[in-house]
Design brief:
Elements (H helix, E strand, L loop, with lengths): L8 E4 L9 H14 L6 H7 L4 H12 L5 H18 L7 H10 L3 E5 L4 H8 L9 E3 L12 H10 L6 E5 L16 E3 L7 H5 L6
Parallel strand pairs: 1-2, 1-4, 2-3, 4-5
Length: 206
């Protein structure tokens, strides 16, 4: 990218970035542990953040000594989170406002999440405008985070080069450094005001 040029696309993580859903996942994990008569600490939940669902389900299976197949664990966890999201979607501050500004500026957007595609679609359907051009879920790629494959797939579907994109990720973004150059094209996000898009115009990209 050249100086003062907007990105070709902005690629969003979902859990903890678009929606503050990490506590929903932790409740679902605790409920599953209770069903196995096991304890599940807050640290146990924190240790799973950033993993793919399949990786986290294997960790859970081992910690709970569960007879469930990892895919069954994924289904149980996802259903628990979906039930909570059906009651309330806890949007991150400034997320929908920034998405609207991106759309008005004509910048392509993708949602890149390790949650299942259908659950991500249910969240997106709660936004009162077309917020994303594409969704890449954890079940859409062979390798999830901590590989860059989901973000690279999103860029491919959008028809843009990953190096011309900005990735917004709340967990450790080091796994993206080889694909998104320079590192300033990766934003560690917690709460971004709508004016963030104007800040993009002032950033220097190589």
């Amino acid at each position: 990218m050249l100086k003062n040029q907007l990105p070709a696309a902005v690629l969003w993580d979902m859990d903890g970035t678009l929606v503050d859903s990490e506590h929903y996942w932790m409740k679902s994990e605790r409920d599953l542990a209770t069903a196995h008569s096991r304890e599940w600490s807050q640290q146990d939940g924190f240790d799973l953040i950033g993993m793919s669902l399949y990786e986290s389900s294997q960790v859970i299976k081992e910690k709970l000594d569960s007879s469930l197949h990892p895919h069954e664990i994924i289904t149980r966890l996802t259903d628990g989170v979906r039930e909570q999201l059906a009651v309330e979607v806890p949007w991150r501050p400034g997320a929908k406002e920034l998405l609207l500004e991106l759309r008005e500026a004509g910048i392509k957007t993708a949602l890149v999440t390790m949650s299942l595609h259908h659950m991500a679609q249910e969240v997106v359907d709660q936004i009162p405008f077309k917020a994303f051009d594409v969704i890449v879920g954890g079940d859409d790629v062979a390798r999830g985070k901590t590989f860059p494959d989901p973000y690279l797939r999103a860029a491919e579907l959008l028809g843009v080069d990953a190096s011309d994109c900005v990735a917004i990720e709340d967990s450790n973004p080091e796994f993206l450094l080889g694909s998104f150059k320079p590192a300033s094209s990766i934003v560690k996000y917690r709460a971004v005001p709508p004016t963030f898009i104007r800040a993009m115009r002032c950033r220097t990209f190589i």
